[in-house]
Amino acid sequence: MIVIGLSSSAAVDVIDAAAADLDLRADGTLHLRPLGHAAYAWPDMLRRRVLAALPPASVDMGEVCALDTLVGQELGAAARRAVDDLAGGDADLVASHGQTLHHWVVGGRARGTLQLGSAAWIAERARRPVVSDLRAADVAAGGQGAPLVSLLDVLWLGAEPGSGARPTVALTLDADASATLVGAVGDPVLTWDAGPGTRLVDDAVQQPGAGPEDVEAAAELTAVTIARSLAAHAPAGGVERVVISGAGARSLVLRDRLAAHLPPGTSLVAADELGLPSDAKEAYLFALLGFLGVHGVPGTAPGPQRRQATGARRPVVLGSLTPPTPLPVPAVRTPVRRLVLSTAPQALLTSPRGSQR
Questions:
Q1: Is 3.30.420.40 the CATH number for 2-145+282-294+316-355?
Q2: Which of 119, 189, 212, 223 could bond to 130 as cystine, CB 3.0-4.6 Å?
Q3: Which residue ranges are recorded for the region named Disordered (predicted)?
């Protein structure tokens, strides 16, 4: 099945799209072949309207209704372009995260989450069924609706049970840094906010009169903060590697300083080196979640204290399908155990140790 994943950040700068060819084998191994990714700019006027509606702004329901339609139309146009640009006109499904407008939290617990982008408009423009509203079911089950990426991390980077491999940390470096500690496949994962990502470096670059020493100082502070956070959450035996993705993976100065502060025996690896484009991980995540959703497979990873990594009481199938029938595929009877990227280096695909990663 070929799935187009759509993602848009809080900055509302671009719509990230990725095309994934996904094939679930009888042994529970899900093979993902990245077909390509692209970034489509939001129209400036619509971007300004979305940003003006973000909290703490006060907007009426008429504007919310209009934005839901306009965002849906733009996501649909991006999906249509991605079908042609990335999948050669051949795609089965679109998975859209939408544009987050509000996350309702009371006493530290999520009560609701609102992503705009009418799925009906996306389906109409893309001429494909759409999986959308990917966080609400997790919130209803007691979760925070995040981090959803932990499922991708554990299926992709988890070790085979009993292999003796040390854990891996998946580190996302966008404006802020977030981390997932991954052990064996099926074991609980630990997720946390790891400090600033690219924010300090970006601010230093944009300051009038800032010199190379200012950028290096910002990178040093960022790296030290993240390294300390990783050390605080690492098990006694340490971690084998830190796999980075996001915008920060392209920053040579940030990667250099982070590598310098990791403990001996811990390597720093870009997601690209393992076959997943660093700057498109989130879009591929939503393609994965869309695939799992239409197959009836839960979209969250196990976490501590018999909860999911999101805090939910139980694993749930994520997303709603538009149109509601017919389902593109039958439900899956075999648990999904592992994610294998067809673009991973051959050594990782063929060696006993690599195949477990």
A1: yes
A2: 119
A3: 301-322
